[in-house]
Amino acid sequence: MDIIIASDYEDLSDRAHRMVLTQMEEHTRTVLGLATGSTPEGLYERLVADHRGEEVDFSKTITFNLDEYVGLDPSHEQSYHYFMHEKLFDHVNINPSNIHLPNGQALNLTHECERYEAAIDRAGGIDLQVLGIGRDGHIGFNEPTTSLQSRTHIATLTPETVEDNARFFDSKEDVPRFAITMGIRTILDAQKCILMASGEHKAEAVRRAVEGPVTASVTASALQMHRNAIVLIDEAAASALERKDYYRWIQENKERLAGRL
Ligand code: PGA
Q1: What is the total count of domains within the chain?
Q2: How far is it, in rounded angstroms, from Cα 55 to Cα 230?
Q3: N or C: which end of the chain has fewer CB within 10 A?
Q4: Is 8 a catalytic residue?
Q5: Which residues contact 258 (CB under 8 A, 6 or more apart)?
Q6: Domain span holding position 153
C-alpha cells in the first residue's frame, strides 16, 4: 500500500484528480470505478472544470459505480444515479451507454448482481477504482463481516451507516436499509485502487484499515492484499496512524527517486 498524506481536503482532491487524469491520458479507453459520498466531490468538481476547459475527454471512458441503494428510483435525489449525473456525468462528454450503476429497482436483485459483475468482466475489468471509507471501515457497502471473497451482492446497511447517511435524507427512517454493492473481490480485481479519506471522524477507520490485521470486520483492510492500492488521506484522517512519520519518509524519498526515473 502507498500511503500518501495530503495537507487538507483541497490537496487531497488535487492529488486524486492528478491520478485520475494521468490514468485517462495514458489510456484513452479507461474503465473507471467510481464512488459516491462527500469525499470524491472535490475530484469530480475538478474533472468537470477540466472538461469545461476542454482538457479532458470522456468519450471513451467507461464507468462502473460501486453501489446503489435498493428501492430508490434513479430520479430520487438521494439515489447514486442522481448523484453521479449531478456531480459528473451531466457535465462531461461521457457516452451514456458507457455509464454503469447497479439497478436497485431490479425485480430480481440476485440476477442484477450477476448481471453487473458480468458487465464489469465484459468491459475488461476496472482499471482504476476510486473508493471512500465508512466509519465502520467499509468500502462500497461492504459492511463488517462481508466476505473478503464477495462479488457484487445485496448488502444490509449497518445502523452506523444508516446514521451517517441520514444527513442526506429527511429522516433516518427514509434511509434505505439495503444496497447493491460490488464485493471485496470485485474491488480487489481492479488494476489500481485509490482509497480517499478526509477528516478526523475517519481517522480510526483508516488506522484499522492500514495498520490493523486484514479482517472482514474492517473490509477496507482487504486493500492490504492489493498489489496497487493507494491510500490518499488528509492530515486529519491520518491523525491516528502510528507510523505516520514513516509513511511521510517513504513519500519524500519516492518523490526524490521520481526525479531520477
Ligand atoms: P463519505 O462516505 O465520502 O460521504 O464520507 C464514504 C463512505 O461511507 O464510503
Answers
A1: 1
A2: 25
A3: C
A4: no
A5: none
A6: 2-223
- State yes or no: is 163 an active-site residue: no
Q: How far is the CA of 85 from the centre of ligand 1 (A)?
A: 18
User: Which CATH number characterizes residue 12's domain?
Assistant: 3.40.50.1360
4: amino acid identity, one letter = I
pLDDT tens-digit readout, 37-65: 999 999 999 999 998 888 899 999 999 99
Beta pairing, strands 31-34 & 62-65: parallel
Is residue 237 in a domain?
no
Summarize pLDDT for 165-202 with one digit per residue, the tens: 999 999 999 999 999 999 999 999 999 999 999 999 99
Pocket probe for ligand 1: among 9, 12, 13, 38, the residue whose CB has the most ligand atoms within 8 Å is: 38
Q: Is residue 245 part of a domain?
A: no
Residue nearest to atom 7 of ligand 1 (CA): 134
On whether residue 176 sits in a domain, the answer given is yes
What confidence score (pLDDT) does residue 54 get? Answer: 81
Instruction: State the pLDDT at residue 261.
Output: 60
Specify if 247 maps to a domain: no
244: pLDDT strictly greater than 80 = yes
Per the listing, cell 482509497 goes with 195
Q: HSE-up of 115 (CA within 13 Å, CB side)?
A: 13
